[in-house]
Amino acid sequence: ASKLKEQMHAMTQNIASLNNVYGGMLSAMGNNRA
Q: For 1-34, what is each residue's pLDDT tens digit?
């Protein structure tokens, strides 16, 4: 069970970092358009 919890935590961190990168790209593109 603890192993599964660790995997979930790692996945959550990966998704959060991906969202930060993707969000930065989107905001940069939006700024370029504006």
A: 899 999 999 999 999 999 999 999 989 888 776 5
14: Cβ–Cβ under 8 A, 6 or more apart, which residues?
none
- Tokens 């930065």 correspond to what residue? 24
One DSSP character per residue, the chain reads -HHHHHHHHHHHHHHHHHHHHHHHHHHHHHHHH-
The pLDDT value recorded for residue 29 is: 87
